[in-house]
Write a structure and sequence with these properties.
Blueprint (H helix, E strand, L loop, with lengths): L1 H13 L9 H8 L4 H20 L9 H16 L10 H9 L4 E5 L7 E4 L1 H7 L3 H4 L13 H14 L1 E10 L5 E13 L5 E8 L2 E4 L3
Antiparallel strand pairs: 1-2, 1-5, 3-4, 4-5, 4-6
Helix pairs in contact: 4-5
Length: 212
């Protein structure tokens, strides 16, 4: 029995294998070239989703704030000659330190009516604003209408001189609470290529003002 089966197996082995033929629809599918742009977009979506999952409740890893934190820290050092925070650890660790700092740090972009694009935890608490709202808010809205001309002069002076370290002025939170900031530093921001990308401000002293 074994010899007969073995012989039959040998006969079958000697026959040429019948090729597997795909139907026309299958051939059309497998012959389509891979579109690199679509593949790249899908890969980016997957990576972004994984990054957002990793970031979780860590806002310094979202909204482009990892890069923005480096712009803020590098520009401050380049213009003022000393560090805003202790620059230890990885960029993400530095971004966390900046976000959790006990002083205010805010920045805006380069639009005609610049939008706020960064605020650390102290700033968010002081202005009583959420991150989604912050990112849609023109920076001029942080000051009352009557004080916006003064603020515009400050920003123009900063643009001209690179930084200002003696600013004093009134700002207003989203709930209407007014406060006077003391000895604020405002400086121009550049990215790692040296391109102008906006302005930032920091201060650690402010006084709440009574409602009129």
């Amino acid at each position: 029995m074994w010899r007969t089966a073995h012989a039959r197996d040998n006969r079958n082995a000697s026959r040429p294998a019948t090729p597997i033929r795909a139907n026309s629809a299958d051939r059309a599918h497998f012959l389509l070239p891979v579109q690199a742009d679509k593949l790249a977009r899908k890969s980016n979506c997957i990576l972004n989703a994984e990054f957002q999952l990793m970031a979780g409740d860590k806002p310094w890893l979202q909204h482009g704030w990892l890069e923005q934190s480096q712009n803020i820290l590098d520009s401050f050092f380049n213009l003022l000659g000393h560090h805003l925070i202790e620059r230890q650890g990885t960029p993400s660790e530095q971004a966390e330190t900046l976000y959790e700092a006990p002083f205010v740090v805010v920045s805006h972009g380069t639009q005609a009516d610049p939008l706020l694009n960064y605020a650390n935890s102290t700033a968010l608490d002081l202005w009583k604003i959420s991150i989604p709202t912050l990112l849609k808010t023109p920076s001029r809205m942080t000051a009352e209408t009557m004080h916006r001309d003064e603020r515009a002069r400050l920003l123009a002076r900063t643009t001209r001189d690179g930084y200002v370290d003696d600013y004093r002025g009134i700002r207003i939170a989203t709930d209407g609470q007014r406060f006077l900031i003391h000895k604020a530093t405002v400086w121009n921001l550049a990215d790692h290529n040296g391109n102008y990308v906006g302005q930032a401000a920091t201060f650690d002293q402010w006084t709440p003002l009574d409602e009129d």
